[in-house]
Specification:
By secondary structure, the chain is α+β, with helices and mostly antiparallel strands. It has two domains: about 30 residues, no CATH class; about 70 residues, Roll (Chitinase A, domain 3), CATH 3.10.50. It has four helices and five strands; from the N terminus they run αααβββαββ. Strands 3-2-1-5-4 form a five-stranded mixed beta sheet. A hairpin with a 5-residue loop joins strand 1 and strand 2. The longest helix is centred in the N-terminal third of the chain and has 7 residues. The radius of gyration is 20 Å and the shape is globular.
């Protein structure tokens, strides 16, 4: 008995969506399409691509990080991977929240001073 193998969809075919569907699910789609990331407003929430000013509650040191993709991460330039422990602890939190990060030396707590979308 002979049968046809299942048809494979190309990856690109699975990623295509008509613009009207995007507009329906993302109300800021038109603004984002014309203004880019500067138009992102997550209402103070830490999200991917956000720049976050933090204060270490133990030492008082202040640091600034931007959450980027795994390939773009460079801690020397303040770019942290979205999959890093600190980014995972920050995502979803708001200005004024405290994020506990499990570091090799133990738990470190950071207060979120500000969240920017640049």
């Amino acid at each position: 008995m002979m049968f046809d193998p299942p048809r494979r969809r190309s990856r690109k075919a699975g990623l295509r969506r008509p613009p009207e569907r995007l507009r329906r699910h993302h109300p800021d789609f038109d603004r984002m399409a014309t203004q880019g990331w500067k138009a992102l407003d997550a209402e103070g929430r830490v999200v991917f691509a956000a720049t976050v000013d933090l204060e270490d509650l133990d030492s008082g040191d202040k640091v600034t990080y931007q959450i980027v993709g795994d390939d773009e991460a460079d801690i020397d330039h303040g770019l942290i991977s979205v999959s890093s422990p600190i980014a995972r602890a920050l995502i979803g939190k708001f200005e004024g929240d405290v994020a506990a990060v499990q570091a090799p030396s133990g738990v470190r707590e950071y207060e979120i001073i500000s969240v920017r979308y640049v």
